[in-house]
Amino acid sequence: MFNCPVDQVLFVSARQTQIACSLMSILYGKRMMEKNVFVEGLKEGDRFDDLFLIKNVKQGETRAGKPYLVLTVMDKSGEVSGPVWDNVAALQKICVAGEVVQLAGLVQSYRDTLQLRIEGVSPISQQEIDLVHFYPVSPKNIEQMAGELQQLVQGVSNPFLKKLLTYFFKKSDCWLPFQEAPAAKGIHHAYIGGLLEHSLSVAKVADFLADHYAGVDRSLLMAGALLHDIGKLQELKMESGVVEYTVCGRLKGHLVIGSEMVAEAAGKIRDFPEELLEQLQHLILSHHGRQEFGSPTVPMTVEAFMLSFLDDLDAKMNITEQLRRKMGNMAMSWTDYQRSLERYLYLGGFAENTEKQSKEVESEKTPPINSRQPSLF
Question: Which of 4, 175, 230, 324 has the fewest CB atoms within 10 Å, i.e. the most exposed one?
Fold first, then answer.
């Protein structure tokens, strides 16, 4: 029987097995080591002494030939870099990408960018660390979203599609990784629980529109909405705090992988209609909307047409949500130029400097906006 191999999905090593276990605390509230200082809260002049995940380590030499390290560290709120000047030979054994360490030092500003002056690095027992502090996590409750998805599955009337969805979201080894996986390497829903959040959101809107528009096969649309990104379980992996592509992911892409996964699972269901499978595969293969955006084919059914727009809409709305959270209470109404959207974005709110910002935006050389929509995938 088809199973999503966990070692090829999100957690690809013994080290990542610990991450998988730690991420269970999101779902079941397991208590581990505390972390109090986060990157997003760091300000120039702050002293820090807390846990950080090492994302990257670079080695270098000064003009005098003295070795040094530059650490890029992260937590769920962001990342920051800083040099290590002293005891480099000894600290090289401690400073390993993917490890959590205790860092102490001072927050400084260098060329208008915050950086850390790292004064101390101490090893930490990795088994005592709650890694949910170090990876971006969906702002929504994962357990609640999982329950909502199960309710949608139960509402699917087509018996074959219901069996297929029940397989993926209950009986197979895919269900737990699906709840934890990011929906993308970057741009939208690129955090733990992102795949579940995105798929559920697309499905909930699809559920509404299936009643709003005539002639829509609701069961088919719902199955496509819930399974359209299932291939990302094998397309993406997490290494050293960074979401990367697997070899299979780069060679095939999640649309082809997902279509293959669905075909294999459907083959285990007795008398699964061939035409129904072909239509569901078409939804998966065409949901990026255009061939230049990675779809082998364009949407050619009502359900595929709707799914491609809903997928794009949900991705764009997630981008705006992230921008709102990032800007917070800043007295700004306009974002920086967003390359993924090919435009500046006005997020509302009236601030004293709105007029000034508008003039600054207009005075900047705006990159050309293509007539076609940008791909977010």
Answer: 324
Matching residue, tokens 């949901």: 287
Rounded CA separation 270/230 (Å) = 22
Question: Which CATH number among 3.30.420.40, 1.20.1250.20, 1.10.730.10, 2.40.50.140 corresponds to the domain 39-129?
Answer: 2.40.50.140
Instruction: Name the DSSP class of 335.
Output: P
Within 8 A by CB and 6+ apart from 210, the residues are: 216, 218, 221, 222
* Cα three-residue angle 215-220-224, rounded to 5 degrees: 125
Instruction: Give the span between the Cα atoms of 228 and 177, in whole angstroms.
Output: 16
Strands 242-245 and 78-84: unpaired
pTM for the model: 0.70
Q: pLDDT digit string (tens) for 32-74?
A: 678 999 998 999 999 999 999 998 899 999 999 999 999 999 8
Per-position b or e across 147-177, b if 16+ CB within 10 A of its CB: ebbeebbeebebebbbbbbbbbbeebebbbb
As a CATH number, domain 6-13+135-317 is: 1.10.3210
